Amino acid sequence: MTQYVWGYLPEYEKERDDILDAVDTVFRSGKLVLGPSVKAFEEEYAEYHGLAHCVGVDNGTNAIVLGLRALGVGRGDEVITVSNTAAPTVLAIDAVGATPVFVDIDPDTYLMRVDQVESVITERTKALLPVHLYGQCVDMAPLEAIAAKHGLPILEDCAQSHGARHHGRMAGTMGKAAAFSFYPTKVLGAYGDGGAVITDDAETDAKLRRLRYYGMEKVYYVVETPGYNSRLDEVQAEILRRKLTRLDGYLARRRVIAARYEEAFAGTELITPRLAPGNDHVYYVYVVRHPKRDAIIEALKEHDVSLNISYPWPVHTQSGFAHLGYQKGSLPVTEEVADQIFSLPMYASLSDLEQERVVGLVQDILKKV
Ligand SMILES: *Cc1c(COP(=O)(O)O)cnc(C)c1O
């Protein structure tokens, strides 16, 4: 079975000398934790976004956890987000003791229905957590207006949107802070786990630095606010520095692959990604939609091709979140879309040949389903 999930090996073949040099650079530096590579990566990643601060952390989930804590979210608070996301978005809200509150998604972009946000704000609402899912941004202007009106901070979940733009603004620069994951499959991926929080606010930056370092600041061994051990690894930071210089190249390649799919499925019943106004998509995943999704997936399996679904089960329907009290039917668009979407192979190192094979198979299957 050809599992078309991103595997790092083709990329590693191309970038091996640089990756191994990054590892050696760290091992020879004499500093394995919070050393020069983390510091340099933080500066470079902040600068890439035109912001003042970046704090490297151990993964994307904890980037959201620390981001929420730095914004003052804790026990008993509510955070508004979506159910059509990677479960870690919601797990992070749970981890700080807060309650996730979901709004539905737009049937065209599969992103947060911003016009539903105001109706679920209560006196316990403490933050808004839009997810720039699949690689394009949530409609931010109306969300920012709601945030300003109600005095709520926005934390952007940018785990899938490195380098994406929205009316010219970069994903991660539109909220009070933004959380990134560098899990290997992501648009900017490490060779292991990693994450970061970016912000333009010095006070938020200082809180994040304490939170990732046990809650300590000036004097080692003295905890000021109980925190975590949530540091970005020095080796991963040095690898990310090297890969950051190639990020725009990865994005360009993803857009070429997306354009090829768009052309191949024009005029078929397969719905290709729709861009919301002002969005430059980075195609972390290439999500398509078809009412006979399951039949298509089954037919592909007969040709030994296995495709992913992001995500087959909305978070509010998962047993681990039953306590939130959502019923089936609570979020009708989210639930309908989850039954119809699937992802075509998409990663910068995907070859033309591999893409052509999948395109040909799907085109044939579409004529028969
Ligand atoms: C990957 C992802 C996360 C979690 O990141 P990890 O590094 O795997 O912890 C959070 N939110 C979204 C939307 C993601 O895609």
TrEMBL record:
N6-(pyridoxal phosphate)lysine sites (modified residues): K186
Molecular-function GO terms, alphabetical: pyridoxal phosphate binding; transaminase activity
InterPro entries attached to this UniProt entry: DegT/StrS_aminotransferase (IPR000653), PyrdxlP-dep_Trfase (IPR015424), PyrdxlP-dep_Trfase_major (IPR015421), PyrdxlP-dep_Trfase_small (IPR015422)
Enzyme active site: K186 (proton acceptor)
Single GO BP term: polysaccharide biosynthetic process
Gene3D superfamilies: Aspartate Aminotransferase, domain 1 (3.90.1150.10), Type I PLP-dependent aspartate aminotransferase-like (Major domain) (3.40.640.10)
Pfam families on file: DegT_DnrJ_EryC1
Record keywords, A-Z: Aminotransferase, Antibiotic biosynthesis, Pyridoxal phosphate, Transferase
Signal peptide feature range: none
Lineage: superkingdom: Bacteria
Family assignment from sequence similarity: Belongs to the DegT/DnrJ/EryC1 family.
Protein name: DegT/DnrJ/EryC1/StrS family aminotransferase
Classification lineage: Bacteria, Bacillati, Actinomycetota, Actinomycetes, Pseudonocardiales
